[in-house]
């Protein structure tokens, strides 16, 4: 068996494995059990998709074609206020709401 794809995680690996299986390749995911052992660290190189040696070239071509048609990364969201700004906004909002509730129901 030869590695045709190193995945970022088990979900990514299974997507590629399913794609290859639909194309008629005997592919399987290896190393997904090791992903939980690393905890919060990146599991780079642990989870991979493998195929038989004789199918490696065609399977690798299919994986490369799949990678080229993937959508680009999503644009970064608009910047959020800094945590200190969020603190003051939350404090001010809470004070105003507290004042209104105290005067309406007090």
What does this structure look like?
The structure is a single chain. With 106 residues, the protein is mostly helical. It has a domain at 2-68: Alpha-Beta Plaits. 46% of the residues lie in helices and 11% in strands. It contains three helices and three strands, in the order E-H-E-E-H-H. Strands 1-3-2 form a three-stranded antiparallel sheet, with helices on one face. The model has no long low-confidence stretch (mean pLDDT 81). Residues 1-61 form the DUF2007 domain. Keywords: Membrane, Transmembrane, Transmembrane helix. It comes from Candidatus Dactylopiibacterium carminicum.
Strand content: 5-15%
CATH class of the domain at 2-68: Alpha Beta
The amount of helix comes to 40-55%
- Please state the structural category: mainly alpha
**Tally of helical runs:** 3
CATH topology of the domain at 2-68: Alpha-Beta Plaits
Give Rg in angstroms.
25 Å
The tally of beta strands, per DSSP, is 3
Largest sheet: spatial strand order: 1-3-2
**In CATH terms, what is the architecture of the domain at 2-68?**
2-Layer Sandwich
Largest sheet: 3 strands, antiparallel
Series of H and E elements: EHEEHH
Distance between the termini: 75 Å
Low-confidence stretches: none
């Amino acid at each position: 068996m030869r590695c045709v794809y190193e995945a970022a995680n088990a979900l990514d690996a299974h997507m590629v494995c399913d794609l290859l299986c639909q194309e008629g390749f005997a592919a399987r995911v290896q190393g997904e059990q090791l992903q939980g052992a690393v905890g919060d660290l990146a599991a780079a190189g642990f989870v991979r998709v493998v195929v038989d040696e004789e199918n490696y070239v065609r399977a690798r071509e299919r994986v490369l074609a799949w990678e080229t048609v993937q959508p680009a990364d999503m644009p970064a969201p608009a910047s959020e206020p800094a945590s200190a700004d969020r603190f003051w906004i939350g404090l001010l909002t809470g004070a105003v709401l507290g004042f209104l509730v105290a005067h309406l129901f007090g």
